[in-house]
Amino acid sequence: MALDNLSLSIISDELEEHLANAVFSKPFALSSTDYALPFNRYEQDGKLKKGTLILSMDPANPYVTYSYDRYQKVDDNTPFFNSLKKLSFGRVRSVEKLRGERVLTVKIDSDKRDITETNSAYDLIVELFPNHPNCYIIAYPYGKIVSLCHERIDLEKGILLSRNAEYSYPVERDVLDENVPDLDSCRRYLSNACFRYFKGYVEKTGDFKAALKELIESRQLYLVGKNILPFHFGLPEARKIEPEEIYSAFVSDQKEVARNSKIKELLALIEKAIKTAEKKLSNLKEDLCNAKENIKFLEYGQMIYLYQGEIKKGDKVLDRDGYSIPLDGRLDAVKNANRYFKKYAKAKSASQILSQLIVKTEAEVEYLKKKILDAKDGTPRDIQELKSELLEEGYIKEKQGKKSAIAHVSKKRNYEPHYLLLEDGSKIGFGMNGLQNENLTFNIAKKEDLFFHVKDYPGAHVVVLNGADRPETIKTACELCLFLSHLESGEVMLTERRNVKKNPEKIGLVNLLRYETLNIKGLRPASVACFKKALKC
After folding, report:
1. Of 10, 220, 238, 448, whose Cβ has the fewest other Cβ atoms within 10 Å?
2. Nearest Cα residue to 508 out of 348, 390, 346, 381
3. Is the distance from CB of 534 to CB of 417 less than 8 angstroms?
4. Measured between alpha carbons, how far is 297 from 302 in angstroms, rounded to an integer?
5. Could you please report the per-residue DSSP string of 105-157?
């Protein structure tokens, strides 16, 4: 979808009305391509109205609009997003559209109360060209670009759009008016979609001039599919839409977009940590294989002692009983034997250490794979707690300028797990991260409560807090374990909570002193529906 000049003119007039004299607050990201600039504006009746200017730099669908809805923030640390903070507390002077071009300029007076502010004003210039939209911040009195969304440098074409360069507006173009002689002449003024619909409307009505007059005089936007049009064109599917509804027309669930963005970022960090741990595990296993291979040095030393009478200085090799043992010609037999005994002792010690490290690293890989499941299924609260957990464990680093999440973790220990309430009154608790798992298992659960976990696979802690004597409750708890591990069937371990001990290596890892297993073949649809509902709470 590409906005044409007529649609953008309608949006621009609306922006002028709603943004004039408004004051921006701190920006935030709606997604990787959409940015929000919240604003406050006093109405004529003295009431304060809060809205949001929205800039979409999606190449396939660039647009600018405003809204009075509330949105979920997405983390963004790109230079352009950070530069939008320069506009905070600036007052909007006007919104202007470049004649005949899809370019808007929001003129902003800087915050005069900020003594650190060196610029007197800013221009926020938005280019809504399809496939290569862009956004610039021009600072005054210098009139130079201080930030832009995408740099464009092509010296052969004379294009130099980067920081500290001067911005040059595209050449103004003629706009569609009633003097246009025929239908084909309208093509250069309209987007492809708009012209296609206009052509169909003219053919339907048979009156080009009347249709042209209706199009030019229209001040109402219409939504047809994913196209924002400046006129209904007689289409039965055309739906009236206000500029403030444009964002919701393209993004039906921004909170889900924000959640997916946060999950994507977190998953990338976890997957990077998994690759690092798996590479470490591979190297440890290779080292262990080499160490075990060097256990043969014990036999080498024993053979040298056995045949020491036949060895003299200067010998390079001992060939006896199928062995071909290299010798150091500078040493006698005893010293050659002791040299191999020392290598054997070192290899034996390394084998023991490496075996322990391999077990520890395997647990680390399993722990991280469980975090992948936690991130995919978690609510925004679960994901935020998961970030705190991974920060404390050292898998992600704290961003500059942010408050310490490690301190937050150490102070706050009441990480509330999720609960599943069954129709018979049974209550099942389950954790969506290590912090919730530990709180559920070791603070909330009683020693006699039943603990469940998928066997030999990353999974959540599931505890039956009420109704453990009911077979249906136990079966549901087993199904929940498999569901949270993204499994359809498998073995589930169950034991009393008293038999569960903390594993000090990682948050949420446990050891079971004894347990029994139940084999579950398939999840019941009713159980799955119940679990999905519980995850949203």
Report:
1. 448
2. 390
3. no
4. 9
5. EEEEE--TT-TT---SEEEEEEE--TTS-EEEEEEETTTEEEEESS-EEETTT
The Cα–Cα gap between 63 and 102 comes to 10
Q: What is the pLDDT of residue 411?
A: 44
The Cα–Cα gap between 82 and 185 comes to 44
Q: Determine which of 94-98, 203-207, 302-306 has the lowest per-residue pLDDT on average.
A: 302-306
Smallest CA-to-CA distance from 267 within 88, 180, 390 is with 390
Query: Alpha-carbon distance 476 to 482, whole Å?
Result: 10
**Pairing label, strands 91-97, 450-454:** unpaired
340 phi/psi in degrees, rounded to 5: -70, -35
One-letter amino acid at 518 equals: L
Kindly give, in sequence order, each residue whose CB lies less than 8 Å from that of residue 501, ignoring residues fewer than 6 positions away: 510, 511, 512, 513
- Tokens at 361, concatenated: 């690293």
198-202 long-range Cβ contacts below 8 angstroms, 24+ apart: 198/231, 198/233, 200/233, 201/231, 201/233, 201/234
Q: Tokens for 303, please give them.
A: 């053979």
60 vs 190: CA distance, rounded Å? 17
Confidence grade of residue 313 (pLDDT, cut at 50, 70, 90)? confident
Closest CA to 517 of 464, 474, 460, 473: 474
